[in-house]
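ok, trying the design again with the full structure, not the truncated one.
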């Protein structure tokens, strides 16, 4: 891939629990597929709520995903667009290696009962 001519951008989908972040991320994946891009959906391995190798919404929508401990582990695969669910579970290096790709991420802004999350390196300072 020629990194100099790649259309790079970062799409951030942020909201509280049950706000539809994963659903919106799946929509971005579908748009990328429709555009003929090679898409890689990624999730943290420690997110085992609904399964190991899928992104799953609270309403039961599912798409295949690669479960990884580090984002760098996912970048070995050939892709044009990366969708990262629950990025707050990854360390600071999360998309450090992928800035030359179009990337969409979902991140939680608050837990149940609107308790803000302050520990993520992705929080605005």
């Amino acid at each position: 891939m020629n990194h100099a001519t790649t259309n790079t951008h970062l799409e951030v989908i942020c909201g509280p629990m049950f706000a539809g972040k994963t659903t919106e991320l799946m929509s971005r994946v579908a748009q990328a597929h429709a555009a003929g891009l090679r898409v890689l959906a990624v999730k943290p391995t420690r997110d085992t709520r609904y399964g190991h190798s899928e992104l799953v919404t609270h309403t039961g929508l599912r798409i295949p995903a690669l479960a990884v401990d580090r984002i760098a582990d996912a970048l070995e695969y050939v892709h044009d667009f990366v969708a990262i669910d629950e990025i707050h579970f990854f360390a600071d290096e999360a998309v450090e290696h992928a800035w030359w790709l179009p990337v969409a991420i979902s991140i939680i802004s608050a837990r149940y009962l609107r308790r803000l999350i302050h520990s993520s390196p992705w929080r605005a300072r």
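Keeping the full-length input from now on. The chain has a mean pLDDT of 77.
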